[in-house]
Each structure stands twice: as C-alpha cells, then as structure tokens.
C-alpha cells in the first residue's frame, strides 16, 4: 500500500494500531472512533498532531473526499452483523479521495478468536465476501491477499 499525505484510521480503540500508524504513515493521521472516551485518550497520548473525532462509522464527521488513505485494523468484527457492517464500506468510500487506498485487516472466524473475545462482539468479515461487499460499495479495484491464520488485507482503490 502506498498511503497518501492524509490518512484516516477508523476504530483505533485505545490506540495500539494508531501507535504504529503514527510512526509509519506520512503526513496527517486522523482518527474516527465510536466510543466517546477514546478520542480524548488518543489526543492525550499522542498530542495535537492530528484530528481525533468521535463518531459512528456509518456517519463519520469527516468531509467528502478528504483523505488519500483509509485504514481499518481489526475493527470491523466488533460490528454485530453483516447488515450493520455493510454501511461502513460506502462511508469509507465517501471520505476517500478518488483513486485513494482503503486497507482492511481483520481477524478470521476461529475457535481461538472466539475464546479470546468471549463476551465481546466478534463477527469477522469472511475474506471470500470482502471483494463483493467492497464492489457493492463502489470500490472499483479490489486486490485481496489472504494470509494463513488470522488476517487478510485487501488493497482497494477508491471510486
């Protein structure tokens, strides 16, 4: 993936992936998070470098075509159903500039994952459904790379 000068990370939770993204991604890094206390925590942890916003992933408070890259790292499986997950994809596309990159990394369904997430929402997006779901959200180039085990990562070019 070749990120552009403005990246949005959706759903960083307490910031484990945000910490890595801050070091590795060029330019600005904005964050959208559904839990109200996490943007404040991230702001206190990382300072005022970037925008930290509270918002639902289906109605994020970021401008249309405002970023070059959108990333989701182990976030989507926290959304309780495919029907609730699907509106997230076009929202990411709305924020993404034309020909931008959208990268997703999320766990696969497994017994180990189910045990680790006992009491938490765990509805992974099956890798075989991702290309279809992304194309339905108007992403035109979907390159899927699956890794053995827990994650898969599509490199998706925007509308």
Using only C-alpha atoms, the radius of gyration works out to 15 Å
How many strands, what sense, and barrel or not for the largest sheet?
A: 7 strands, mixed
Percent range of helical residues: 25-40%
Which descriptor suits the 3D outline? Answer: globular
List low-pLDDT spans: 149-153
The largest beta-sheet arranges its strands as 3-2-1-4-5-7-6
- Say what oligomer this is: single chain
Can you count the beta strands? 7
> Overall pLDDT, averaged?
76
End-to-end distance: 16 Å
Which labels suit this protein?
globular; seven-stranded mixed β-sheet; 159 residues; alpha/beta
What features would you describe in this structure?
With 159 residues, the protein is an alpha/beta fold. Strand 2 (28-33), helix 2 (37-46) and strand 3 (52-54) form a beta-alpha-beta unit. 28% of the residues lie in helices and 29% in strands. It has helices at 16-24, 37-46, 82-85, 88-95, 111-116, 130-136, and strands at residues 6-10, 28-33, 52-54, 67-73, 96-107, 141-146, 151-157. The protein has 6 helices and 7 strands. The model is unreliable at 149-153 (pLDDT under 50). A 7-stranded mixed beta sheet has the order 3-2-1-4-5-7-6, sandwiched between helices.
């Amino acid at each position: 993936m070749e990120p552009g000068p403005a990246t949005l990370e959706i759903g960083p939770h307490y910031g484990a992936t945000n910490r890595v993204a801050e070091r590795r991604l060029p330019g600005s890094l904005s964050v959208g998070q559904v839990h109200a206390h996490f943007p404040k925590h991230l702001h206190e942890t990382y300072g005022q470098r970037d925008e930290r916003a509270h918002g639902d992933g289906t109605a994020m408070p970021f401008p249309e075509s405002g970023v070059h890259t959108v990333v989701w790292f182990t976030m989507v499986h926290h959304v309780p159903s495919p029907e609730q997950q699907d509106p997230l994809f076009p929202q990411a596309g709305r924020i993404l500039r034309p020909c931008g990159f959208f990268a997703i990394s999320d766990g696969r369904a497994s017994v180990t994952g189910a045990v680790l997430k006992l009491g938490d929402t765990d509805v992974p997006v099956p890798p075989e459904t991702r290309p279809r779901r992304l194309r339905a959200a108007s992403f035109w180039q979907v390159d899927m790379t699956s890794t053995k085990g827990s994650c898969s990562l599509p490199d998706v070019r925007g509308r």
